[in-house]
Fold this sequence. Notes:
A: mainly alpha, B: Rossmann fold, five-stranded parallel beta sheet, three-stranded antiparallel beta sheet, 8 strands, 29% helix
Amino acid sequence: MHWFVTLLHYECLLVLRSGKDIALMLGFALIALSVMALMADPAWLHEAAAAMIWTVVLFSVLLMIERIFQDDHHSGRLDALLTQAVPCWVIVLAKAGGFWLRAGLPMIVSAPLAILLLQLPFFVLPALLVSLILGTLTLSLFATTGAALALGARQPTLLVMVLVLPLLIPVVIFGALVLERSLAGHAVTGHFLWLGVCFCLALACVPFGAMALKARTVG
Amino acid sequence: MFEFSFGFSGTALNGMAFEYSLRSGDRLCLRGDNGSGKTSLLSALAGVPSHPNQSAISRDYSGDFRTQMHFIGHRTGVHEALSIAEEWQFWHTIFSPHQPTAPCPIQDIANQVGLDISSQRIIGSLSAGQKQKVALARLFIAPRPIWLLDEADHHLDQTSRAVFEGWVQDHCNIGGIVIDTSHFLPNFGTVFSLQKAD
């Protein structure tokens, strides 16, 4: 447990140190949403808002996915950690946490702004926030597992896309459905449950990522 | 004082079979030209093979190897965005799972490796030799009997290299085992020469 706390603590520290990652993601979200909001017809905006927000979320994840293990792999830190007694699943979970701070948190922070930009009613904010939190956590777990599996491959980016895109898409669909349904005034409990199912599935995939890290070691 | 033995055997990149049995106080120096497989051998020994053809090394050691050795690779794994104190505290916590909240004696370690930590600078702004010393400090953060060092004297100046040789000597004197690679001739220890594959 303390290993997880330590690793996560350092992930937080590094995210704060290199504030450019978060700034980049915030900037990306805001620019993408502003462009969409400015170009689109207001009536159509209402219908397309859910798809827009979740497309931005998906792209932010895909933008950062390659970097999850890259720095630690190149600097030798990953190998140095793997020679220690730290369990591999702890490394994967901590990396997923760090990834969520970089790619997920900026999306959640910019949710109120997205509502303003896309001229949505504010009563959908709670549903949007809950779906974003659950959704980005799930995406982070899938992405980190995929990145661990693709580590050391010749074309890691391509491989990781092929591996995780099919897993990410359902999350994005359910997330978008939550917003669309709550905009139309329907109940969204069922969709939250589906997002929960995706989250559990993502957790269940973590051992595969841990196995991929374990496979880098012998003895 | 440490009192133990450590053996390993396997096949080098050029196909040469080797078998070593080391006892407390021994030092084994891997020497050879660029590309002769020093790093591959040492990283495989540490348990993280860097070369796909060099994974068949069997270790003969009683106890949990991972908690008994330090491996400082060619790529040292120092995180450049951290300060020296943060970096050392990180490894201190990783090395001592039983007292995770214990603070790392940062000043003592800084004195030992000869680094000035008063300025709180991030590691990225240090010179290559200083970064190397930041990595080598792991040897003193937790006392462990086996040191696996891959070109640990890389980037070090003349004086620091002599100091480093002194650390190795001291470690062997208290019964530790050191296996290291370098392009310089060691003061003492057995030399294991690796040849390039034809």
